[in-house]
Amino acid sequence: MTASGDTPGADQPPPKGAQPPPSDAPGGDGGITGTGDGTLLDTLRVAVVMLDTSGRVLLWSPLAEEVLGWAGEHIVGRRVGGLFGPGEQTLGSRPPPRPVPSAGQAEQILGELLRGGRWSGILSLRHRDGHTVQVEARASLLVDGDGRPFVLASMVETSRLRTLEHDLAALDSLFDSSPLGVAMFDSELRYVRVNDALARMNGVPAADHIGRRVADVMGVKSAESLAALQRDVLLTGRPVIDLVSPAPVGKGHRSLSYHRLVDRAGRVLGISATVIDVTERVEAAAKAERARRRLALLNDVGSRLAGQLDVRRNAEELAAVLVPTFCDYSGVDLHYQLAEGGELPVAPYTDSTPMRQTGVGAISWSPDVVRMIRPGQAVSHDRKSPFGHVLATGQPKLFGSREDLTNAAFPDDPKVRATLAVGIESMLVLPLRAHGVVLGLLIVGRTGAREAFDQEDVALGMELADRAGAALDNARLYVREREGALMLQRALLPRYTPAAPGVDVAYRYVPGSSAAEVGGDWFDVLPLAGGRVAFVVGDVMGHGLPAAATMGRLRTAVRTLAGLDMAPDELLRRVSELGDDLAQNQAEGWMATAVYAVYDPSTRRCAIAQAGHPPPVLVQPDSGSGGCEARLLDDLPPGVPLGVGGVRFETTELDVPDGTVLVLYTDGLVESRYHDIGTGLERLRSTLCRPLDSLEDACDDLLATMEPGREPDDVALLMARLGTLPRGSTAAWSFPAEASAVRLARRRVRDALAEWGLAELTDVTVLLVSELVTNSLRYAHGPIGVRMVRGGSLLVEVSDPLPDPPRERETTEEDEGGRGLQLVAGASRRWGTRHGPLGKTVWFELALP
What we know:
Blueprint: H1 40-44, E1 47-51, E2 57-60, H2 62-68, H3 72-75, H4 106-116, E3 118-126, E4 132-143, E5 149-157, H5 158-177, E6 181-186, E7 191-194, H6 196-202, H7 214-218, H8 220-236, E8 240-246, E9 253-262, E10 268-277, H9 279-306, H10 311-321, E11 329-335, H11 336-339, E12 355-362, H12 367-372, E13 378-379, H13 386-393, E14 397-399, H14 402-408, H15 414-421, E15 424-434, E16 437-447, H16 455-492, E17 503-510, E18 519-527, E19 533-543, H17 545-562, H18 568-577, E20 592-600, E21 605-611, E22 617-621, E23 628-632, E24 652-655, E25 660-665, H19 677-688, H20 695-704, E26 715-722, E27 730-735, H21 740-756, H22 762-779, E28 784-790, E29 793-800, H23 820-827, E30 830-836, E31 839-847
Helix pairs in contact: 9-10, 9-16, 10-16, 16-17, 17-18, 21-22, 22-23
């Protein structure tokens, strides 16, 4: 390549003092190393060329070689005119540059340069491989130390320069027009650039930021934490993204993000900051959180009140759950009738209407607080006071400040003085309503440490008060129904157990907890003929008045059938067959479990039948250890519940030693939500293995074993110590079915009554025995038994092998017989018949003199 065909000669040395640029100088050569590696100059690739005044190349830098492809040995000494070629002389949006001559007009550029001392413009130069390279050039006329002029020119590819200019323009546009606050800090954490958005946020002009730190702009107090955060980002390089903090000026919140600035050589230049005004976002989040807390409070109050079906406990839970979530102090004042579980108040509230502070809550219990709110104290509210106004109108009252409290009260009102003494400066008085009737007041207060109540709190408070009012009314209705059911149930249960010879009885009945309805558990002790005693324990499935009513019918049926002296299995069968007649609602049907036992103290035999009931327990004396042994009778036929039908019941007879204790109970004693029934049965058995000093103490010990978390079910417990009749209180004979049996029976009865000191009963007893024995001789063909028992009355039994019971019939004056049973019925206190395994028994009782 040549400009004019000349070659450099010895008379054209480089200017004196002109040396090639050092390797680390900007734009020197392309091999920049050291601290300058990867800088902005590497991106631009500034090429340097030195010319004499005739246009001959004196120095050609390595970057010029990279840009145009010509090596220095090929171009030094030649004129540059041959490098010019056609090219565009525009620069994007820049003003059009002046025209640049073609390759033949290079002298014009030198002439202009010699006249003006400098020149700049865009050139189209020819690359060694033939394509055109467009560069932006700057040239200056210089003089060396000997006074000789030379030209020093630098050039940059326009493509690289335009890219950089576009990037800088985009950055400037984003920086200046962004609605976000943007700032850059140097390595000393001083502002080096701030956009107008951040200047407005800080309330300080942008120019006043430059060269200052955050503490200088915002104040030390608000900038301490930010300065520490900036130092951490600068030292560690860990960015901080979306850190929300209060605004340093005025109210509001900001989101801060910090990143460390590093150049291409890895040198830390400082940090950048992006600031966003997130006041609306924070307020929306706070509003949503406040709504969430309100919903959580409503849910908490609802769940706490739903689990309480007692008016007093409801009021206590309401006052307690509001502190400290909603207020600092709370009180529930109820009409005295409602506080005692009575009816809804119907008369208007007056100055003398008694009320009771049923529930209270406080964050602390100082003497002033105790004077202000005290659980259980009687209170009354003047009609002209704000409290009386709320009671009369059913509308809430808001006291938003201490002045409101003072202005609304009477002078020297002790309630207001106590309120102000504990620091309450905001109060809500809310009506507790149900069915349009004001039941009382819910009074809540906040101290000065919290925000005062506002209208949103009034709306929330009314929602709480309305829910509480409905819960209080439900509790009142439940208590009334439960008391009625309990009254009915207690009326149906035996008030006392009859005394039976040889048998001691103790019992307990425990209603379900206040959170459950009354159940259908019952027990009974029934005296039977012949000194025998029947024990029954049952449980009607279900709760409430229907279960109690069914229990009453069932108990009546059992007592009636027991009077017929049936076997236990037969009695249960008859009761089960009554079916829908015993049910409260025939559409729903009914079911009940029961166990029925009959004990004969004269033979020490116990007959038991079950209808799906938990197994009885026999506690027998242990002669070897001197203690006792509790045996669970789980091997007895369990049967099915009454009302199921289709399954037969079975009677099991047991011989029981003297002093054995029979324990009958309902499932509420042994069931638990935490363990299966087997665990409860084993606990029952182990408790009964302890020495039984008395049946009453044993009943209390068993009830004490019930777990607090058990199902809230009723418990019926019956314990009977089974003994024998006192010595000498029974007499029994057996006679052959012969005519002499009547005479022998009369003699034995007369002798026994004389021995017992009951001579006054001799005539009537001998007459009735004669009639019954004669009746047996007439129809039976086997031995005839006569037995007498002296206890609370005189019991006489006559038995024979004939299974058919005798029948009482009407007689006339012409009839010679048939009056025996009429005599028995007329002369005895009561009489009856019963079936046995070997025949029948006719019995009667006579009152002792």
